[in-house]
Amino acid sequence: MNGRLEPVVKRQILFxxxxxxxxxxxxxxxxxxxxxxxxxxxxIGAMIYIRYRQQKALKTFGFSxxxxxxxxxxxxxxxxxxxxxxxxxxxxxxxxxxxxxKKPVF
Length: 106
Ligand SMILES: [Zn+2]
What we know:
Layout: H1 2-30, H2 32-60, H3 65-69, H4 72-75, E1 79-82, E2 88-89, E3 102-105
Helix pairs in contact: 1-2
Residues 82, 84-85, 87, 94, 96-97, 99 line the site of zinc ion.
């Protein structure tokens, strides 16, 4: 697992270094204020990029966004209760009244 994560981490470090080099070059050519703004834009872009890469990397290991976000949704068994009659719903629609309206019970 670690062997597969490594290239992603390496690419992230490379990306941060590259973005810093770009921002330094920009501030050199366009002055401090423009460079500072460009710096922030590049850094925010880098953070979004890294988040995206991490999510993609996690997905390759079989984790969904849901499981990464909260442990409870994956660990606890979700029960559904019909909104119309209050009966437990195990399939898409309620067996007693046929209603598709249901709410999860934890
Ligand atoms: Zn029902």
